[in-house]
From TrEMBL:
Residues 257-271 form the Glucose-methanol-choline oxidoreductase N-terminal domain. Gene3D superfamilies: FAD/NAD(P)-binding domain, Glucose Oxidase, domain 3. Keywords: FAD, Flavoprotein, Oxidoreductase. This is GMC family oxidoreductase N-terminal domain-containing protein. Its cofactor is FAD.
Length: 549
């Protein structure tokens, strides 16, 4: 049950990566009462913890919001599934577990845009602070934090051959993508502990679940932030079928993600005037940029049939293969069930004019027509490649004032000519790698999009037909000081005291890689900023009645 006293020092909305970390850091002061609200349930679903279980978590309403995009003109009018975590740990409970920081250039660019304190040299210590790296402490890595990073526990001959083919194509083999320059090809490091998914709830909530000043409530869907004389004073939510208000004496921090945070602001009357007036929501504070600047990584899934080598397609399509996978995982937590969705990665330039790598590969020893459908019956691998710095921009807006209505998600994929040009370059580069001598023994044959497509027009059209999201939405509450920016460099919402945002929505530009660990870093930065601004001595009294992650 919720405590009778609904007043806290800090109310954190959303128990994704940043929210879990913030709850941990802020509640370290025993005199400070912290409330963490999560709309989803507890992370006690077994498939969350078995790495290959992402197949049963994405698209499952128990763990996923199951959003859909609007029909995308750039994708032949297709609407895509848009998974977002609906469970403690948020997307870290259903994602690909890849530990990736991005490039130093990403963060230096944020700082150059008027966001002091966000350059690479500023954020590297924040990454290290939460990190528990298998290699121990070093100039680039930390080992005293909670966010476990390990090597993968299984390999495939076809992936080793792809890595060698990449080297033969001028893409050097490297062991670590997280030093600031991720150019090269290698196996991803993953957020696992001994072959089990390591999500943000395990890392940051479970170790502090007995703190009497930390309350974690699940099944609480936040509707809006309430303002008192222009200051954020409380959140209005529904919990166990009734309306609740949770007061914040110091601050409210939104950590609901690039889809959730702009929606809460808009329902609160904070956002673009035309949208709010059209939906009949009083405009309490006009912020035109709320919901805009949506960016995502669109992956192009190239599939190659192969011979003379084993892939997961053969293993998983037989009764004995499935039994063997299960027994192997029970024995030592390895084998295919311990696999991240993608094992091998590469970062390359689509063209020499690019200053740093602008393409990322996720290479998998499997193939399927669409996510959620059965694996193909033939041996194959998939080389998914995405443009790390798309120019296309979209929006996330509420559909109505009712928090139960799914949002309008319009990524606007491939709407910029440059993104189409890079997509065609990516397909050509993939073909070049696959034609290298290291893969010749496996006789790769292009199944998708098809080797007959060669002209620029054909390749751009193919990109629209095979492109799909890799689940990295960011940017909808952009950080900066321009007219369309939503938060400042301290993560404070412009013009609204007592309200901050700490999640992927604040990214001015998307990072050059997977976005989970950069979001954790944003949470770490937010914790430092909030604690620095806190009163020297706590003025709160009493303790919460329950702390139950």
């Amino acid at each position: 049950m919720a405590p009778a006293d609904h007043s806290y020092d800090y109310v954190v909305v959303g128990a994704g990566p940043a929210g879990c970390l913030l709850a941990n850091r802020l509640s370290a002061d025993p005199g400070c009462r912290v409330l963490l609200l999560e709309a989803g349930g507890r992370d006690n679903y077994p498939w969350i913890h078995i790495p290959v279980g992402y197949l049963y978590c994405i698209g499952n309403p128990r763990t996923d919001w199951c959003f859909k995009t609007e029909a995308q003109p750039g994708l032949d009018g297709r609407s895509l599934g848009y998974p977002r975590g609906k469970v403690l740990g948020g997307c870290s409970s259903i994602n690909g577990m890849i530990y990736m920081r991005g490039q130093a250039r990403d963060y230096d660019h944020w700082a150059e845009q008027g966001n002091p304190g966000w350059a690479w040299n500023d954020v590297l210590p924040l990454f290290k602070a939460s990190e528990n790296h298998f290699g121990g402490a070093s100039e680039l890595h930390g080992n005293a934090g909670e966010w476990r990073v390990e090597r993968q526990r299984y390999s495939w001959a076809i992936l080793d051959a792809f890595r060698e083919a990449a080297a033969q194509s001028g893409i050097a083999s490297i062991d670590d993508f997280n030093g600031g320059d991720n150019q090269g090809c290698g196996y991803f490091q993953v957020n696992q502990r001994s072959g089990v998914r390591w999500n943000a709830a395990k890392a940051f909530l479970r170790p502090v679940r007995h703190r009497p000043n930390l309350t974690v409530l699940t099944g609480v869907e936040v509707d809006k932030v309430l303002l008192d004389n222009g200051r954020a004073s409380a959140v209005q939510a529904r919990w166990q079928g009734s309306e609740q208000r949770y007061q914040a004496r110091r601050e409210i921090i939104l950590c609901a993600g690039a889809v959730g945070s702009p929606g809460i602001l808009q329902r609160s009357g904070i956002g673009p005037r035309p949208l709010l007036e059209r939906l009949g929501i009083p405009v309490l504070h006009e912020l035109p940029g709320v919901g805009g600047n949506l960016q995502d990584h669109l992956q192009l899934r190239l599939i190659y049939k192969v011979s003379n080598v084993r892939t997961l397609n053969q293993v998983a399509n037989t009764h004995w293969g499935k039994l063997g996978m299960g027994l192997r995982y029970l024995y030592d937590r390895s084998g295919p069930l311990a696999m991240a969705p993608s094992q091998l990665g590469a970062f390359v330039r689509s063209h020499p004019e690019q200053p740093t790598p602008n393409l990322q590969y996720h290479v998998q020893p499997l193939s399927l027509d669409r996510f959620g459908e059965p694996l193909h019956r033939f041996a194959a691998f998939t080389a998914s490649v995405c443009n790390l710095r798309p120019l296309s921009r979209g929006r996330v807006d509420i559909r109505s004032a009712n928090p139960g209505d799914a949002p309008v998600i319009d990524p606007n994929y491939l709407s910029e000519p440059e993104d189409l040009r890079v997509a065609a370059q990516a397909i050509r580069l993939t073909r070049q790698i696959v034609q290298a001598p290291a893969l010749a023994a496996f006789a790769p044959v292009e199944y998708l999009p098809g080797a007959a497509l060669n002209t620029e027009e054909q390749l751009q059209q193919a990109a629209g037909q095979i492109g799909t999201t890799i689940f990295h939405p960011v940017g909808t509450c952009r950080m900066g000081n321009g007219p369309l920016d939503v938060v400042d460099a301290q993560l404070r919402v412009h013009g609204v005291a007592g309200l901050r945002i700490a999640d992927a929505s604040i990214m001015p530009q998307i990072t050059s890689g997977n976005t989970c660990s950069p979001t954790l870093m944003i949470g770490e930065k937010a914790a430092q900023l909030i604690l620095k601004a806190a009163p020297a001595a706590s003025n709160s009294s009493g303790k919460t009645a329950l702390a139950t992650p």
